[in-house]
Write a structure and sequence with these properties.
- The chain is an alpha+beta fold and 133 residues long.
- It has a single domain, classed as Ribosomal Protein S5, domain 2, CATH 3.30.230.
- 32% of the residues lie in helices and 23% in strands.
- A five-stranded mixed β-sheet has the order 1-2-5-3-4.
- The longest helix has 19 residues.
- The radius of gyration is 18 Å and the shape is elongated.
- The termini are far apart.
Length: 133
């Protein structure tokens, strides 16, 4: 087996998901947790969302493979984590794209998390039904 030449790598996170994204010399393939991107993330909207940094930066990915390992959270959180990690990897590979990615919000970690459940109620905001009598 030939060794892969790593171009750059980045770590991203969203909600409770984290992802390690590596850009490797190749032919433009996407692998997430060992599966093809289309098999792992069925939603076309999420796939377009995580490919957003590439269209913004104008980086040519025909000679590069994207290998991502995502864990924690759900598919949408993992897609956001991959997008964040990919943005960081692109900046490591080419510093000139940093300003465009930063302006588009790709380098900012989305800090929105699930709100915690409070005591004395069934959820974060929901209350038990009020009984007058």
């Amino acid at each position: 087996m030939a060794t892969l030449k790593v171009i750059s790598a980045g770590t991203g996170s969203r909600k409770t998901a984290t992802a390690r994204v590596t850009l490797v010399e190749g032919s433009g393939e996407w692998k997430v947790n060992g599966e093809k991107l289309e098999d792992y993330i069925q939603s076309e909207a999420l796939r377009d969302y995580l490919k957003q940094p590439i269209s913004i930066s104008g980086y040519d990915l025909t000679k590069v493979d994207v290998v991502a390992y995502a864990k924690g959270g759900g598919i949408s959180g993992q897609a956001g984590a991959i997008r964040h990690g990919l943005s960081r990897a692109l900046v490591k590979a080419d510093e000139t794209v940093k300003e465009a990615l930063k302006k588009a919000g790709c380098l900012t970690r989305d800090s929105r998390m699930k709100e915690r459940k409070k005591p004395g109620q069934p959820g974060a905001r929901k209350r038990f039904q009020f009984s007058k009598r």
